[in-house]
Design brief:
heterodimer; A: alpha/beta; 5-stranded parallel beta sheet; 16 helices; B: alpha/beta; 7-stranded mixed beta sheet; 8 helices; 32% helix
Chain lengths: 469, 211
């Protein structure tokens, strides 16, 4: 029978099918960070349980770590305790950890793929909703809560009901200047933040296939912003070339066996989906979010919408509240919106390609006078090293940007990096919720090139018209 | 986990769609390594005028009097009425921990985000999905009647209004049993240890690079 990519990976991981339609699903890889794991480890301790297979889990601190003066350690005592708890728990339970002083440390969703911990066809979980990122490798990857973190540590399994599967195909050649980030923001704008609820989304089509692994990860990363617990993309040469030679990837005789198995990881041509959407790549312009939900997003050429044009009363209230929070008026051109800060980084856009794209825009320019801070935060120590070897850090610092240490940073502002009330930020992160980047902070989600251009111009600009130097 | 069988409780209405888990419990409180103590910080940015910090005493903090949970008539509520896509965003289980710690045992909405919905069941909170039109009526009745309470019965899968009108809701059978008995599902899964070992042995022969 014809199978979808999701079906293939799912079926390979069913330990036991229960009478009620749920299954016991085996988990190959468990990524762990400091914020959602301490209560799970405490649960194990209280029940006298040990990890079922400690080598399936790998940990790294990312949410709380400082991006400045790393050698001084973490100044906030509560943050420090949480990172120390991760160190102690990993030691106690025999789990590999890339600690704060390890070059491999970074945002967990950057580190996993970079190390080859994420492999095609795996089931990958992490106590973090952006685990969807790893689906770019043809894996079933989903975010879980802390109780499930404990469940996976104790049993290597989860009790799951199979979700429905939706395929979103983006066909045609991507216009110049359009990135994976623009594609996924455009999709979220189309289907809404609950459009994928109850579904796994397979992203397909020639525009998706034309993306690098970095671009594909940006797309899958934000499947959760469309409501789907996992997003995934079929395996091709791009996937296999990326994985080859990574530290935890199969070696020797195993690598050819693995590659043969991975090449099967795509939807069969006659597979059926519960829902299908086909979009034309040519319709996608650089995207900028204007409100407090990722679905409140528009092309850079648009103007801020009026609540009077909302589809119903609930949306109207949502838009009014968003305009008030964001300090925006209906009818304002997106390109006339000035920014105070710029953040380039996160699990969505913290990979080498993202910094290359941003650096291309920045090269030869200087940050605008009205921009107080433009922060560039690599997704991992290895991304940082690679960027520095290419001289990208110098391009940023010469333009007045700050080049920081790796971590989640101002994507969610759990460390010291945050917006002050009323500050407006062009951000390559994934959520523009109220207060996300700091109480009262105003976030506009964009691609790395668009964020870089906003830092130089002082307001949003259409990257398609950029004069590269 | 605390079992859930039935409750009769005061209802608080949160009339906004797409309430995200960042709003339910802001990031600074996620630094705690405990499962409890989040109640005072539930909806922190909506409840208080100042910026909350972990472990602070909330007794004298300036409150936003208009916010629903600050209104005297909703004090002691254990059932929350919500709108579409409640609990979207971050997977943080601190969100249901904060709701539970505050006193909510049941959330009724037209739809929930997947991860949040799942997390509720792990913590003895019953998330109920009711049709949008029924929700509109419940919101209207709640606004019109001080002391508005609902009767929620998990065994019979019903929500009953003060005027004895009853609405039934769907729930997955396994989750229902776990909630009714307050079961720890890790213990249940460990009863399948032999099947897990057998799966691993077979999988290891097919795909040794995974182990």
């Amino acid at each position: 029978m014809a199978k979808t990519l999701f079906d293939k990976v799912w079926d390979q991981h069913v330990v036991k099918a229960n009478d009620d339609g749920s299954v016991l699903l085996y988990i190959d890889r468990h990524l762990v960070h400091e914020v959602t794991s301490p209560q799970a480890f405490e649960g194990l301790r209280m029940a006298g349980r040990k990890p079922w297979r400690a080598n399936a889990a790998v940990a790294t601190p990312d949410h709380n770590v400082p991006t400045l003066n790393r050698a001084r350690g973490i100044e906030d005592p509560i943050s420090r305790i949480q990172v120390e708890a991760l160190d102690a728990n990993c030691k106690e339970f025999g789990i590999t950890e890339f600690g704060m002083d390890d070059i491999r440390q970074g945002v967990v969703h950057v580190v996993g793929p970079e190390q080859g911990l994420t492999l095609p066809g795996m089931t990958v979980v992490c106590g973090d909703s952006h685990t969807a990122t790893h689906g770019a490798f043809g894996a079933i990857a989903m975010g879980i809560g802390t109780s499930e973190v404990e469940h996976v540590l104790a049993t290597q399994c989860l009790i799951q009901k199979k979700p429905k599967v939706m395929r979103i195909s983006v066909e045609g050649e991507l216009p110049a200047g359009i990135t994976g980030k623009d594609i996924v923001l455009y999709i979220i704008g189309k289907i809404g933040t609950a459009g994928g609820t109850g579904y796994a989304i397979e992203f397909a089509g020639s525009a998706i296939r034309s993306l690098s692994m970095e671009g594909r990860m940006s797309v899958c990363n934000m499947a959760i912003e469309a409501g789907a617990r996992c997003g995934m993309i079929g395996v091709d040469d791009v996937t296999i070339d990326y994985v080859k030679g990574r530290p935890f990837a199969p070696t020797g005789g195993q690598s050819s066996v693995a590659e043969a198995a991975w090449r099967e990881l795509h939807s069969d041509s006659d597979a059926g989906f519960d829902h299908e959407i086909v979009l034309d790549a040519a319709d996608i312009a650089p995207q900028v979010s204007w409100g407090t939900s990722p679905e409140m997003v528009l092309p850079v050429t648009a103007t801020v919408p009026s609540p009077a044009d909302a589809r119903d009363e609930i949306q109207q209230q949502g838009w009014s509240r968003a305009l008030e929070y964001m300090g925006l008026e209906a009818g304002t051109a997106i390109e006339d919106i000035k920014v105070d800060k710029v953040f380039i980084g996160s699990c969505t856009n913290g990979r080498i390609e993202d910094f290359r794209e941003a650096a291309k825009v920045v090269a030869g320019y200087r940050m605008a006078a009205n921009v107080k801070l433009a922060m560039v935060v690599p997704g991992s120590g290895l991304v940082k090293r690679e960027a520095e070897a290419e001289g990208l850090d110098k391009i940023f610092t010469t333009a007045g940007f700050e080049w920081r240490e790796p971590g989640c940073s101002m994507c969610l502002a759990m460390n010291a990096d945050r917006l002050e009330p009323g500050e407006r930020c062009a951000s390559t992160s994934n959520r523009n919720f109220e207060g996300r980047q700091g109480t009262g902070g105003r976030t506009h989600l964009v691609s790395p090139a668009m964020a870089a251009a906003a830092a130089i111009a002082g307001h949003f600009v259409d990257i398609r018209n950029w004069e590269f130097k | 986990m605390q079992a859930f069988t039935s409750i009769k409780g005061l209802v608080a209405p949160l009339d906004r769609a797409n309430v995200d888990t960042d709003a339910i419990i802001p990031k600074q409180f996620l630094k705690s390594i405990k499962r409890t103590g989040y109640g005072p910080f539930l909806f922190d940015e909506w409840r208080y005028k100042d910026v909350g910090q972990p472990e602070m005493d909330c007794t004298d903090r300036p409150k936003r009097s208009k916010f629903v949970l600050n209104q005297p008539r909703y004090q002691g509520a254990s059932i929350l009425l919500a709108r579409e896509n409640f609990g979207c965003g971050s997977s943080r289980e601190h969100a249901p921990w904060a709701l539970l710690d505050f006193g909510f045992r049941c959330i009724v909405a037209p739809s929930f985000a997947d991860i949040f919905y799942n997390n509720c069941f792990k913590n003895g909170i019953l998330p109920i999905v009711l049709d949008g039109q029924i929700m509109d009526r419940l919101f209207a009745e709640c606004a019109a009647t001080e002391g508005y309470a609902l009767n929620v019965n998990l065994e019979s899968q019903t929500v009953t209004t003060p005027s004895a009108e009853s609405f039934s809701f769907d729930i997955d059978a396994f989750r229902k049993q776990c909630l009714l008995k307050g079961l720890d599902d890790i213990g249940l899964t460990l009863q399948e240890s032999a099947a897990i070992r057998e799966y691993e042995a077979e999988r290891k022969s097919e795909a040794p690079w995974l182990f």
